Amino acid sequence: MSHDTLNRTATPARPETGGATATATMAPAAPAPDVATSGRPAPGTGSPAKPSGHANSHAQTGTKTDAKADAKSDAKADAKAKPRDAFFDNAKYLAIVLVAMGHSWEPLRDGSRTAAALYITVYAFHMPAFIIISGYFSRSFDMRKDRLQRLITGVAVPYILFEVAYTLFKKWADDDPGYPISLTDPWYLTWFLLALFVWRLTTPLWKIVRWPVPLALSIAVLASLSPDIGDDMDLQRVLQFLPFFVIGLSLRPEHFKLVRRKKARILAVPVFAAALVFAYWAAPRMNAAWFYHRDAAQELAAPWWSGAVMTLAMFGCSLVLVACFFAWIPGRTMWCTALGAGTLYGYLLHGFLAKGSRFWDWYDNPWMHTPWGAVLLTLIAGTVVTLLCTPPIQRTFRWAMEPKMTWAFKKDPVGMARTRT
């Protein structure tokens, strides 16, 4: 699930959450004020008297003074951060909690139909919700230098670091020394960072096409029919989840207000209840791998045409459940709101425990498969991922999640001039 989306990409202050990380607002910088149109008389106007050398000097001095004042004002405006929106931080935090809970339920599905139904329901909407938020906060992305730098430091660098870290962890914890490090074949949770990098780079293209969502959905359908795409860059997931990112790019604040009305909150209750009932019925009959969007239909032992049917059907179901999820998200500041800025940390770091629990056979204990064991496991998963989103963890791992890396980029002459002014 961010980085800029899970974390920064999905916060109004700056570019992601969630994933968790998850995905930040990249608002366009204000243009430098034009002295000739800033409400002050242009030099050399207002008096018909013949200008003298002294007058010219005075006019030039005034122009320079005005320019300095404008530069200072512009620098202050750029430095002033937009306030965070509590709604999106709450949404990212609750979504990352559901991610961790879903991972804790995965080994319980074979012995518990209830766990399988909850797992299917959560997987139908938690990643689409993260991706929609990531797309929403990518609307202003362009190829401007500072935004490309944030994309590299906030998405590409964490992807490389955690892809290597996860691979080394698997070699050690799973006793698999031959498992290769591959930056083109993301393992476990890192696929979201690679996908977000690709999606965000394509943002300018989606802004110029006339029907972006139908086009993205057509690409997803074609991907589900194409088993030859392979595993490189997890391209199936990149393409099959693409419509949700493009929907996020197309949304406006009024669309979120629409699903947060009281009527929508009430309507979401029976809709979500119906989804749980259907999931309980479908759990023993349906291949849960459809929800991962990482395989073509033929790779799931299904006829080729079922890829198109399932892609469209699941797209519609996911959108409905995402709307229900957003309808229940509080818009006020709560105890967990501040944790929404750390969803990338929770997303990437909890993966070591989630995978470690399998490598170290924690689920072999029969008590874990009892109802009380499942409840306790769910609470532990929610608590652990919450702790991993806290400020102390963010400060500890910021060097990997949000490196500044000023040494790696050329100096911006315009920015340096403004700073000197």
UniProtKB/TrEMBL annotation:
Coiled-coil spans in chain: none
Compositional bias segments (type: Basic and acidic residues): 65-76
Domain Acyltransferase: 86-388
InterPro entries, per the entry: Acyl_transf_3_dom, Nod_factor_acetyltransferase
Biased composition (Low complexity): 9-37
Region (Disordered) residue spans: 1-76
Leader peptide range in chain numbering: none
Transmembrane segments: 86-105, 117-138, 150-169, 181-199, 264-283, 303-328, 335-353, 373-393
Pfam annotation, one family: Acyl_transf_3
Biased composition (Polar residues): 54-64
Highest taxon of source: Bacteria
A GO MF term: acyltransferase activity, transferring groups other than amino-acyl groups
Keywords linked to the UniProt accession: Membrane, Transmembrane, Transmembrane helix
PANTHER family to which the protein is assigned, alphabetical: MEMBRANE-BOUND ACYLTRANSFERASE YKRP-RELATED
This protein's name: Membrane protein
Naturally occurring in which organism (per UniProt): Streptomyces tubercidicus
